[in-house]
Amino acid sequence: MADTSLSELERDVANMIIEALELEDITADDIDPEAYLFGEGLGLDSIDALELGLALQKRYGIRLDSDAEENREHFASLRKLSMLVAERRSD
Amino acid sequence: MDCSSHADTALSTLYLHRWCAWLPERAGEHMPACVITDEKPPAASVPAMLRRRLTPLGRAVCTLLGEMGAHEHPGMPVLHASRHGDGHRPLDMLDTLFEGEPLSPARFGLSVHNAVLGVYSIAFDNHASMAALAAAGEEFEALLSEARGYLSDGCESVLLVLTDSPVPERYRIQTQAPQNPSALLMTLSLSPAPDAVRLQAHAIDTAGDQAKIVTPPLLTDWLMGRCDLITRAPALRWQAVGETHTTPGE
Question: Where are the transmembrane segments (chain A) (predicted)?
Fold first, then answer.
């Protein structure tokens, strides 16, 4: 079974998502780290993707090329996004 | 040139079928049941993922549009007028730009003048004609003018949304803006109905100093019989004939 508990970094990234996207009534523990962030799953939309890009830059100093195909991969789930942060953070 | 268009008495009579308002500044006061005063209205019919981006003013408009049942009258145009849009948002973005910071895409997306109607339209799946107006303090007049256009074109009724919003402190000298946000909605038509209130306009020479900017609190007071209503363009004194509000809530 998938591990749905959050690491410290995942919790930090989850809180960034909640704060940046003004998700009402959602806590870090409500986000399944393996679930899709967009579409089904958490249900984020394309404006959220842009907003998340901005939040990553502000919080962790990570600049993503907005056209890069690999962004889809990075934004797939909380776990994937946390892996990106661990790898590329410069804050 | 004939400037007496306001003398067209047929168009100077409108029928008010329903109204409701959001006046957070009147919390605790004795108000009719159709006036809500909660600081952050629920907008329960708007999915949470859409609702999160609305300001209290946007939530209020969506709550009241839901209560007025606009989506149950397909084709009824919804017209929204506000002088400053949705409060601080557009002006705060100018500060962000000045500081050289990137803009929030979500806030940018909702800072356009028709943003609240857009969210409402998506949430309620209402594809009727909608328009957002700004008219430098003559928003109510502009709404009436727009409404008459739709009604003359054969629309049975129109739904008007008038909102007002504070602006950041540093802009308050430049322009007249209220301390609190507010909203008022009304459905109007050209035909009488048993429970409709007749709104009768009387031409006056000049609106002069008597004419205040028509805001949601002022319209509410007028509908409660507490003050006069004078519009500026054209200069008209309005009279409401009939029962304009239900008994104040206990």
Answer: none
